[in-house]
Amino acid sequence: MTIDTSPHLTSAGTRGPLDDAEVSRLRADFPILARTVNGHPLNYLDSGATSQKPRSVIDVERRYYEVSNAAVHRGAHTLAGEATELFEEARATVARFVGARPEEIVWTSNATEGLNLVAYGLSNASLGRGGAPAERFRLGAGDEIVVTELEHHANLVPWQELAFRTGATLRVIGLDDEGRLRMDEAAELIGPRTKVVAFAHVSNVLGAVNPVAELVALSHAVGALAVLDACQSAPHLPLDLVALDVDFAVFSGHKMLAPTGIGVLYGKQELLDALPPFLTGGSMITTVGLTESEFLPAPMRFEAGTQRVSQAIALATAVDYLEAVGLERIERWEAELGRRLHEGLEALPGVRVLGPGPATPSGHGAERVGLASFVVDGVHAHDVGQYLDDRGIAVRVGHHCAQPVHRRFGVTATTRASAYLYTTTAEVDAAIEAVAEVRGFFGVA
């Protein structure tokens, strides 16, 4: 018995640029987009938090439980074999998606777990676990970990904890007034004492694409590990982690059309095999004695316990869907939506968008994804979000798990609108028109 994991796109998917007509056809693949909210058609502009799921992804997870459900890597019966084959085929699909080998892909619950896995693995190495192969990972007093001011808390707090446990010092690359990384500071901070440099590919608040190649080059020039948070890039941009030459990278399935509960840690094979494990127990060992155990090589050494089987299969189906549409086409479409969103909001009196402006045809501005975080003068972000929700427009409000970058720009919270491959220009325009009404509605215009 096999499970059909093909994407089943409603759109025929021509290879020209995406446009509203094709996006409207794609929307038929997403059941939730047909519903209404508060008497209005749902206008879902919160994909930066979590994406909606196409029917093929929903169906494949259900179908797995209907015909092939079993524990993977554990049984010799037919169902166990089918489940294991589907599970490992999913790993191979996701590996191909990011230019990696299957052995370099570790299943996690989410990107946060992946970052903690790396940080705690380094901590265990610093305690002497892993023997000689793990020497390269050891940190102590005098060593430094470098992060940036724009990081999501998931790529900040684990490194704070690693610094606390090892005595290392945490250093921070700042932002300029436009919201760009201070690469002059990066060149000064990343030096002989640096052991880890952790940074986001795309800011979940500012929407700007960061200079990965430069940061990796600075890291490797001093022998430091480069750790990439790809949560806001894997769903939206073509991503080749091997070409980027990062040492570790993470992303989450739920932001890229897949279910919650599945994430990915990528690591270079030689690093994963040397890194001591973080979670321990069954399925990640070769031999267990009463006083000590030996661990499997990667990726199994990091996958203790019962696996996320249906979620992994569904993530592979989501990857198939994204590839059928085309990541290059999605990137161009979202860049257009992001430019439309940014320029439309910036043109409104009393509205400020955080981060650098989008790239123009002349090359000025920043490469951005379809995301904009903004402040409405005199109106709290939560009130802005409620006003939009009353009109069926779903956005994110708050600090988006990124308090330091909000603090850098003197605000406690923003409203964030984030688009995806199923977002139309009409939806972006409707959101801008609704934001234009907010200050008048609250009497602060």
Which key features would you list for this structure?
445 residues, alpha/beta, Aspartate Aminotransferase, domain 2, Aspartate Aminotransferase, domain 1, 2 domains, seven-stranded mixed sheet, 37% helix, globular, PyrdxlP-dep_Trfase
Structural description of this entry:
Helix 7 (212-221) links the parallel strand 7 and strand 8. With 445 residues, the chain is α/β, with parallel strands linked by helices. Strands 4-10-9-8-7-5-6 form a 7-stranded mixed sheet, sandwiched between helices. It is globular and about 70 Å long. The mean pLDDT is 94. The protein has 2 domains: 78-321, Aspartate Aminotransferase, domain 2 (3-Layer(aba) Sandwich), CATH 3.40.640.10; 327-441, Aspartate Aminotransferase, domain 1. Helices cover 37% and strands 15% of the residues. The protein contains 14 helices and 17 strands.
Q: Whole-number average pLDDT? A: 94
Total domain modules: 2
Major beta sheet, specifics?
Answer: 7 strands, mixed
Uncertain runs are none
Q: Sum up the overall morphology in one term.
A: globular
As an assembly, this protein is single chain
**Strand runs, count:** 17
CATH class of the largest domain: Alpha Beta
Radius of gyration: 22 Å
Binned, the helix content reads: 25-40%
Mind telling me which CATH architecture of the largest domain this is? Answer: 3-Layer(aba) Sandwich
Number of helices: 14
N- to C-terminal distance? 63 Å
The computed structural class is alpha/beta
Biased composition (Polar residues): 1-13
Catalytic activity: (sulfur carrier)-H + L-cysteine = (sulfur carrier)-SH + L-alanine
Pfam families: Aminotran_5 (PF00266)
Organism: Herbiconiux moechotypicola
